[in-house]
TrEMBL record:
InterPro entries: PsdUridine_synth_cat_dom_sf, PsdUridine_synth_RsuA/RluA, RluA_PseudoU_synthase. Residues 11-167 form the Pseudouridine synthase RsuA/RluA-like domain. It catalyses: a uridine in RNA = a pseudouridine in RNA. One of its GO terms (biological process) is pseudouridine synthesis. This is RNA pseudouridylate synthase. Gene3D superfamilies: Pseudouridine synthase. Coiled coil: none annotated. It comes from Mediterraneibacter gnavus (strain CC55_001C).
Length: 228
């Protein structure tokens, strides 16, 4: 599989992860973005040795969108520092079933992950393993059945957007795990559409966008591009 790369230099690589491909997996025979990108780096390198590639953040397997990987330990350390200090901007678009009561909101909950079922749920602060989950959203468009949410993720918890939106009463379209009895969409309608960070070496502001195809809304936006 040839990766869709938006930007690459000696320190980082920014790509578009297709829906259905995991960011990283230990399951033999299943391609993931790490193995795909390592093969790309190896094939395009004059020095045929095992490439270094560090995962900085992840997207759920059914989610389409932007990812950045580090190609050196120094770049990985700096990008992880930004990720932990909220200097890393992760923005999403989601097609929701229904529409929240308020067009703009901040959701802050506690989530706990169940490793046996690979799900997360809303819980209390006192629940063992609970972690705070926070995001902000803006409803940009609506139809009779759906709404388009623009989401800024402050934390990166397991299945966070999917769980919090379902808890709000507006599950993501196509989400058969947290929005049962959905058959209208073959793909989860959640997209990592914008990514912002400082380049780990030059400190230049980096911004990348991806415009997903949203068939329930007529006026779709143009293709992927880096900004600035």
């Amino acid at each position: 599989m040839k990766p869709h790369i938006l930007y690459e230099d000696q320190d980082i690589i920014v790509c578009l992860k297709p829906a259905g491909i995991p960011t990283q997996t230990s399951r033999p025979g299943l391609p993931d973005m790490v193995s795909i990108l390592k093969n790309h780096i190896y094939q395009n390198s004059a020095h045929k040795k095992q490439p270094y590639l560090a995962v900085i953040h992840r997207l759920d397997q059914p989610v389409e969108g932007l990812l950045v990987f580090a190609k050196t330990p120094a770049a990985a350390k700096e990008l992880n520092r930004q990720l932990q200090s909220f200097g890393f901007g992760k923005y999403y678009q989601a097609v929701l079933l229904g529409c929240p009561q308020t067009a703009d909101g901040i959701l802050e909950d506690y989530l706990v992950k169940d490793g046996r079922t690979n799900t997360s749920r809303i819980c209390t602060e006192e629940t063992p393993g609970a972690k705070v989950a926070r995001l902000s959203y803006h409803i940009a468009k609506t139809t009779a059945e759906f709404s388009l949410a623009e989401i800024h993720l402050d934390t990166g918890r397991h299945h966070q957007i999917r769980v919090q939106m379902a808890h709000l009463g507006c599950p993501i379209a196509g989400d058969r795990k947290y929005g049962p009895n959905q058959t209208s969409f073959s793909q989860l309608q959640l997209f990592a559409c914008r990514l912002e960070f400082a380049h780990p070496k030059t400190k230049k502001h980096m911004e990348f966008t991806h415009a997903p195809v949203l068939r329930v809304f007529a006026d779709e936006t143009p293709a992927d591009h880096p900004v600035g």
